[in-house]
Amino acid sequence: MRRVLSNPIVLLTCVALFWGGNAIAGKLAVGHVSPMLLTTLRWLFAVVFIAPFALVKVREQWQIIRENMLMLFLFGAFGFAGFNALFYHALNYTSAINVTIEQSIMPLIVFFGNFLLFKLKPSALQLVGFSLTLFGVAITVSHGDLSRLLLLNLNRGDALMMLAALLYGAYTVTLRYKPALHWQAMIFVLAVSALLSSLLLAYFEYQSGKMLFPDLHGMGVVLYIAIFPSLLAQSLYIRGVEMVGGNRANLFINLVPVFGSILAVLILGEVLHAYHIVALLLVVAGILLAERSAMMRPEVG
Fold first, then answer.
1. Are the beta carbons of 160 and 90 closer than 8 angstroms?
2. Quick check: 20 and 259 in contact, CB under 8 A?
3. Which pLDDT does position 10 carry in this prediction?
4. Model's pTM, two decimal places?
5. Which of 36, 38, 127, 153 has a Cα-to-Cα distance from 90 of 20 to 30 A?
């Protein structure tokens, strides 16, 4: 088990799986809990769940946390709360197809950000790998008919999702600056920061009269999101970035729509088509190419 948990490919694949479930859960939440309240409840439950395990580490490393409090708060506010709020809000205005395509721009944002800040140039194989995964994503979200992509119309939700992708891409790049904290202390502090910053968003939602309190269905979505996409995925993602760097780690995000399609078959009863398998092969091939490139020229930082 320890060997499995030390494998970055396994860790980052699990992240993509959990985030694929997040996309479905976010769509299922529409009409059952409002997006800003969903974000707040997500991080409230996440803090409650991890607190018993993390507080010891937080006390041990409090000096480091206090010295880096502003940075850690911004990580939680923008990378966690900001991204989630925009993501769930976008799903109220646009389709899951559009959101999936726009989320796939994150690796390109990370490549660009790492080049600007750290002069890390993606290799030719990484760019080819990125192109293959993006092509696989396009096949998935277009249901095997790429001409359908030309029919997608950008709206308010698409603009919100593009901003969300920009926020999370920036968060991934700036994780290089994070202090040397135990993962439990790190995720706890970021979750608390996300919770505190999301309260303001929830307040504005309440004042606008758009707050929708969760019913039983909505609470089920909240609990799933708090445990899997929040605690587990975010912890594994931070560890994955530590192990392989942002360029390689972020490429695995392109597995999200593939896993999302598979989960839609299992949970929503949709039909699995041949193009899903083709897309999965393309995405995996793209990741393997990027991994091969990284092994030949490790990312340093």
1. yes
2. yes
3. 85
4. 0.75
5. 127
